[in-house]
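Dear support,

I submitted the protein below through the web form. The confirmation email said the job was done, but the results page showed an empty box. After a refresh the structure appeared. I'm attaching both so you can tell me whether what I see now is the final result or a partial one.
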Amino acid sequence: MVKAIVEIDEEANRVINVLKAQYGLKDKSQAINEMAKQYKVLVLESEVRPEYLKKLDKIHKEPIIRIGNAGDFKRKYGLK
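What the results page shows now:
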């Protein structure tokens, strides 16, 4: 476990206190750890994987199927 002395402004302090209360955490260290986990998920892991880009490109190359309006769709697929 790493220990650090940090200086934060009042707004950041309020955010940490809200996070601490919201998750029922014991101290600000736990709140900062939770914030880091959420940041990792939302920002660092949100990059698009190359496999997905290839799949998306393949989908874009598929022909478009026109179905018209809702009535045309229902008639085409035998729905009531």
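Response: this is the final, complete result; the empty box was a page-load delay. The mean pLDDT is 89.
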